[in-house]
Specification:
The chain is mainly β. The chain is 14% helix and 52% strand. A 16-stranded antiparallel barrel has the order 1-2-3-4-5-6-7-8-9-10-11-12-13-14-15-16. A hairpin with a 2-residue loop joins strand 12 and strand 13. The longest helix is centred in the N-terminal third of the chain and has 27 residues. It is globular, with a radius of gyration of 22 Å.
Length: 394
């Protein structure tokens, strides 16, 4: 454990010194901050918004304490995504984003690999109305859900086990300059029914029109001091089996203080997240659970103690339950989980480059319903030091 702490200190210290060097250099040539890597190398300025290329990265050195010992300590590239987007003209735009550290095997339903987050084109038909067609992020509510994934150190289980990037079409309408409504229709999954749900009760048949529908409201109040991102969704997975998902995201922005609070609730007639079903698989059961319910609360607080230094705290509370007894799954709550995250970030330049040192702690408390399936309480932890950078390549 002493060696791991020493490595973290050395890595964090070297990162801080490097960040200080970058900060010093950027203070001398601050105008470079607004330029892309292509511009810096070629000394040519980009004259168009038709093509913008970014490399989204999050890399870290991680230690996983377990009591007085350390289970593992490794370097890891947590996020690596190439992103291309732009405006062809005043009314046509596009976006493409792909994870470079995920499999590229195409899925049965949409014929696209799960490594692709976005592959879509949009049309701004009027100043207030647009639509976006292709593979895209579902327009679920919640502030954290809408963040760039490189900015999130640990998702709650609700988002971790959710299929977020699906193929379909999204219609957006700005009621006023501060309030937007979106209605989205997407495939309810990427691949086949069997790939997503595995073995199910023989009486359950895949939906002939496996689609998901989401209505989303994005609001802004008091000159962007308060923001809301709320949604309600219905996903049709099998005959007479739906998911009903509700998400309410609320954000407060002050001069040096920023926070958001997300509430998420999912009622699944066929266990779509699979969190409870995985407990059954561990006990040797084959069928997917029915009538599951998940709830998540996430609160995140940021405070800029200095212009380039940010400290943050994040808390998560989640429950998983079965609402009606079915097959091997008894009615009742199965787990309560907590998450507690804190850290410090250093921003040496105007660009979104920052170094971080974080602690992530989780606590999983299982009820007797889950313990009969072989589950036991756990308290995984992680200490990470690394950097996040959305590199503007072109």
């Amino acid at each position: 454990m002493k060696k791991i702490i020493l490595l973290l200190l050395l890595f964090g210290g070297s990162s801080f010194l490097f960040a200080q060097h970058l900060s010093f250099q950027s203070s001398k040539t601050d105008s470079l901050d607004a330029k892309t890597l292509f511009e810096r190398i070629t000394s040519l300025e980009k004259k168009t918004e038709k093509l913008n290329i970014f490399l989204n990265t999050q890399g870290s050195f991680n230690a996983y304490p377990n009591g007085n010992d350390t289970e593992q300590a490794t370097f890891k590239m947590d996020q690596l995504r190439i992103e291309v987007k732009g405006n062809i003209n005043k009314w046509i735009f596009y976006r493409y984003r792909q994870r470079l550290n995920r499999s590229n095997n195409p899925q049965v339903l949409d014929n696209l690999p799960t490594s692709i987050d976005y592959a879509a084109i949009g049309f701004q038909l009027t100043p207030k109305f647009s639509f976006f067609a292709g593979k895209q992020s579902t327009v679920y509510g919640g502030i954290e859900f809408d963040l760039n994934p490189i900015e999130v150190y640990q998702y709650c289980d609700m988002l971790e086990y959710m299929q977020n990037f699906l193929t379909g079409v999204d219609f957006a309408y700005w009621i006023t300059d501060n309030h937007e409504l979106q209605f989205q229709i997407v495939d309810s999954r990427n691949g086949s029914f069997e790939e997503m749900f595995g073995q199910v009760d023989p009486g359950i048949k895949p939906a002939k029109t496996p689609l998901g529908y989401t209505l989303n409201w994005n609001g802004s109040f008091l000159e962007n001091m308060i923001n809301t991102r709320w949604s309600v969704s219905v996903f049709h997975d099998a005959t007479n089996k739906n998911m009903y998902y509700y998400a309410l995201g609320n954000q407060l922005n002050l001069k040096r203080f920023h926070m958001y609070f997300d509430f998420m609730y999912s009622r699944e007639e066929l266990d779509r997240k699979g969190i409870i079903s995985r407990m059954g698989y561990k006990a040797g059961f084959d069928n997917r659970a029915l009538n599951t319910r998940y709830m998540s609360l996430v609160a995140h607080f940021n405070y800029r103690i200095r212009p380039k230094i940010n400290i943050f705290l994040k808390g998560m509370y989640e429950t998983a339950s079965v609402t009606k007894s079915n097959q091997e799954y008894a009615k009742g709550k199965y787990s309560t989980s907590w998450g507690y995250i804190g850290g410090i970030e250093y921003y040496p330049m105007r660009e979104n480059l920052h170094f971080f040192l974080t602690y992530v702690g989780r606590s999983f408390d299982y009820t007797q319903c889950a313990k009969t399936l072989g589950m036991s309480d756990s308290n995984p932890q992680r200490i990470s030091a690394g950097l996040i950078y959305q590199i503007p390549i072109f």
